[in-house]
Write a structure and sequence with these properties.
Its EC number is 4.3.1.3. It comes from Pseudonocardia kunmingensis. By secondary structure, the protein is mostly helical. The chain folds into two domains: 195 residues, Fumarase/aspartase (N-terminal domain) (Fumarase C, Chain B, domain 1, Orthogonal Bundle); 278 residues, Fumarase/aspartase (Central domain) (Fumarase C, Chain A, domain 2), CATH 1.20.200.10. It has 20 helices and nine strands. It has a three-stranded antiparallel beta sheet. A two-stranded parallel ribbon has the order 1-2. A two-stranded antiparallel sheet has the order 3-5.
């Protein structure tokens, strides 16, 4: 397998794709010459303040509510070490490797702007750790979203100074000092302001937002595919997806979703079979007819979240910052509200897309609504239960997604002796969004599995080429209708095909790229 090209972290903002490449694909990282020059220039500003009798936050003072304490020169290196050690206070399960790598490369991107005052060698260690596949152990709990993701970032900084635990490139848990030595990386000895610069940012929230957006771009197209298969197999109509009807309400996400449904349903013999005067159905149920409205609203929500993420990628988040004209200024840019809001907003959209998917699945199982299919799509109803309990699984997930849609960003618990008296809870919003995205993939997978079974039961009528291709990709891994089988492995295989994008790719091989 060819080696991945390094992602160059420089003075320009990283793209979402570059962050995902580092986080998820393990791409190595390099710092540009321009970034190293900017870092060196801002470091001179910080060093010029080292002997200043005036207090400067993060350089010669304590932190948070202890900012009034002046720290003498001989204790300032200890100040930075103590900050990292004390703030590495996370608890709970380990955070996923891709999240930690995203967090680290985003912190490195802020260091590369030259607005934080770190030394070049400190930034280089982060690049070397990422390139060596060394991943600090970060715990689930510890961030309030202000001053950014303190505890998660502190665990990364702790590893950079050779303390704490990491996972090496093979995923083995090792002491940080041992893993760094094995990779030929010298631990950082922190100087003035560096500890603070390494931990004061919204990197964890942003990293999880970018990963979720990448997943949702694929999942929303897959939800369109699943909806199309359901419309087809439930003998619905595609007339409502016509461009002129959708243009009457010109939301871009709705237009894209409806276009996908039209493309996927094109040339369906099942659809053609009931386009006759004998068909007296006037309109389909909302879960079929309004699929573009629900999926489209989720798309527009995603577009808004991506716009916020883009602005955050262009930001230098630290406190204090070194300004372009050489001032060192305190600020509030570390507050996670902009990210917390959209993370919560996406969780709402995810819950609703999953909810409408479950409703379509349920229609297949009810003989009063499935237009001639057997009860629960069972081979021998009564002896066999078909997909009865698969819908229970969907319903349980959807119920959980509704709870995960309750906003985290409306909460605030004051901290640091009331110095930090309004916090964002953006990390919590990001963590629950990750769980929600996983739940959506599972719900959509069960709809696809059920719709594919229903399409098979409509034989000898043939599905559309695109839905047929998706059905065939499922059939390569999961058998078609028949007596009841052990269902859980089949659901998990469908989840894998959805999460990997393979079933979507099968349909897009017919339609071309969906929107």
């Amino acid at each position: 397998m060819p080696a991945l090209a390094p992602v160059v972290v420089g003075t320009r903002p990283l793209s979402a794709q570059e962050v995902v490449a580092v986080a998820r694909e393990g791409a190595p990282v390099a710092l540009s010459a321009e970034a190293l020059a900017e870092i060196a220039a801002s470091r001179k500003v910080v060093e010029a303040l080292a002997d200043d009798v005036e207090p400067h936050y993060g350089v010669s003072t304590g932190f948070g509510a202890l900012a009034t304490r002046h720290i003498p020169l001989e204790r300032r290196a200890q100040l930075q070490r103590s900050l990292v050690r004390s703030h590495a206070a996370g608890s709970g399960p380990e955070v996923e490797r891709e999240v930690v790598r995203a967090l680290m490369v985003l912190r490195l991107a802020t260091l590369a702007t030259g607005r934080t005052g770190v030394r070049a060698e400190t930034a280089v260690v982060y690049a070397e750790m990422l390139s060596a596949g060394i991943t600090p152990v970060v715990r689930e709990y510890g961030s309030l979203g202000c001053s950014g993701d303190l505890a998660p970032l502190a665990h990364c900084a702790l590893a950079a100074i050779g303390e704490g635990e990491v996972r090496d490139a093979d995923g083995v848990l090792r002491p940080a000092a041992e893993a760094l030595a094995a990779a030929g990386i010298a631990p950082v000895v922190l100087a003035e302001k560096e500890g603070l610069a390494l931990i004061n940012g919204t990197c964890g929230m942003l990293g999880m937002l970018l990963l979720a957006c990448a997943d949702l771009r694929r999942l929303l197209r897959t939800a369109d595919l699943a909806a199309a298969m359901s419309v087809e197999a439930l003998l619905g109509t595609d007339a409502v997806f016509a461009p002129d009807l959708q243009a009457l309400r010109p939301h871009p996400g709705i237009a894209d979703s409806a276009a996908n449904l039209r493309a996927v349903l094109a040339d369906s013999a099942i659809m053609a079979s009931h386009r006759t005067p004998a068909c007296t159905r006037v309109q389909d149920a909302y879960s079929l007819r309004c699929a573009p409205q629900v999926h489209g609203a989720a798309r527009d929500t995603l577009a808004h979240a991506e716009a916020v993420a883009g602005r955050e990628l262009a930001s230098a988040v630290d406190n204090p910052v070194v300004t372009a004209d050489g001032r060192v200024e305190s600020n509030g840019s570390f507050h996670g509200a902009p990210l917390g809001y959209v993370l919560d907003f996406l969780a709402i959209a995810v819950a609703d897309v999953a909810s409408v998917s479950e409703r379509r699945t349920d229609r297949f199982l009810d003989v009063a609504r499935n237009h001639g299919l057997p009860p629960f799509l069972a081979d021998d109803p009564g002896v066999d239960s078909g997909h009865m309990i698969a819908q229970y699984t969907q319903a349980g997930i959807v119920s959980e997604l509704k709870r995960l849609a309750v906003p985290a960003s409306v909460d605030s618990i004051p901290s640091s002796a009331m110095q930090e008296d309004h916090v964002a809870m953006g990390w919590t919003a990001a963590r629950k969004l990750r769980r929600a995205v996983d739940g959506l993939a599972r719900v959509v997978a069960i709809e696809l599995l059920t719709a594919a079974r229903a399409i098979d039961l409509r034989a000898p009528l043939a599905p559309a080429p695109a839905t047929g291709a998706a059905r065939d990709r499922l059939r390569a891994a999961v058998a078609g209708p028949g007596p009841d089988r052990y269902l859980a492995p089949e659901i998990e295989e469908a989840v894998r095909l959805v999460a990997s994008g393979e079933v979507l790719a099968a349909a897009e091989a017919v339609t071309g790229p969906l929107r």
